[in-house]
Design brief:
Layout: H1 8-23, H2 29-46, H3 58-70, H4 75-94, H5 121-128, H6 136-151, H7 155-159, E1 166-167, E2 172-176, E3 182-186, H8 189-207, H9 226-240, H10 248-261, H11 266-273, H12 278-281, H13 283-299
Antiparallel strand pairs: 1-2, 2-3
Helix pairs in contact: 1-2, 2-4, 6-8, 6-10, 10-13
Length: 303
């Protein structure tokens, strides 16, 4: 893995850490890049003041946080960077590269936890109906939207879905999620019908005479990118007349909040979303609690 012009000992330590995260923790290339960027950001702050990781102290970290605060960088961004640095220096301490972890005594104030945006059921219906008349591309877009809302996939899982990962007869997807963890996710009949139509009428025309293992293809027969699907969502949101800011992740949030509002248990939703920690899923219970509070305020005579 390439590094910028770092001192040799620091560059070697960072390279060892990134290789460990890839080989032992099975993290994705995007996650590895995020760790690398966070650590570089910290090292850039230090400038030429250190040549080896063992020279980093608590005061360096506190100075870094103070500088971030002065620049108006959010607590959320700082928390992510500190998490990356903790992992880096914990690894170095475990490997005996440093004697003391400079992050051991660092604590960040709790960042405010923002509730994810979710569409209403009627807004989802408007969005799903916003695709233009049938064409190979509109069949693809319609299938992607229906599948995203029916399964709660991450956008990366959706665009990287192989044809072999979907079973329309059983109504299930085999998903390779974060950390290369595999899970089975169900989807409903309507999504199955849209997928079947795309596989029969849309995908062969996009594929032309080529070959691809990917389920969703571009007009050139190549795999769909996250950015391109983001653009498609924005175009369809405008077409549907939805005023909210909507991303592919919004449909994942809507999937979870609508399931819980309908009576699904938290553990089942956690399994479908692929969350390793149920506390991550619990945020959707707050969405439903806020909805109930709003209903109470609007309709209770003493609201």
């Amino acid at each position: 893995m390439e590094s910028r012009a770092l001192p040799p000992e620091t560059a070697a330590a960072l390279d060892a850490f990134l290789k460990y995260m890839a080989a032992e923790r099975h993290l994705s290339a995007n996650t590895i890049s995020a760790y690398q960027a966070d650590i570089f950001f910290f090292l850039d702050h230090l400038g030429g003041r250190i040549t080896t990781p063992s020279q980093v102290t608590c005061e360096h970290v506190r100075s870094f946080l103070a500088d971030c605060l002065a620049k108006g960088i959010s607590l959320r961004s700082n928390a992510r960077r500190i998490s990356s640095l903790r992992a880096f220096f914990r690894f170095l301490a475990a490997e005996g590269i440093i004697k003391e972890n400079p992050l051991a005594l660092i604590e960040l104030p709790k960042a405010r936890r923002y509730l994810p945006t979710a569409l209403t059921v009627s807004e989802v219906a408007d969005l799903l109906a916003a695709t233009p008349p049938p064409s190979p591309l509109s069949l693809r877009n319609e299938a992607m939207l229906h599948l995203l809302y029916a399964s709660g996939l991450r956008v990366s899982e959706l665009v990287n879905m192989p044809v072999a990962g979907i079973n329309i007869n059983s109504g299930r997807l085999r998903v390779l999620g974060k950390g290369s963890k595999e899970r089975l996710v169900p989807f409903g009949e309507v999504a199955g019908e849209k997928l079947a139509g795309y596989l029969k009428e849309g995908r062969p025309k996009l594929l032309k005479k080529g070959r691809s293992d990917y389920l969703f293809l571009t007009a050139h027969g190549r795999p769909m990118s996250r950015n391109r699907f983001w653009q498609i969502i924005k175009e369809l949101v405008l077409r549907a007349g939805i005023k909210k800011k909507v991303s592919p992740h919004t449909l994942r949030h809507s999937f979870a909040s609508h399931l819980l509002a309908g009576g699904a248990d938290l553990r089942s939703v956690q399994m479908m979303l692929g969350h390793s920690d149920i506390s991550t899923t619990q945020i959707y219970t707050h969405i439903d609690a806020d909805r109930l509070k709003d209903i109470h305020k609007r309709f209770h005579p003493r609201g």
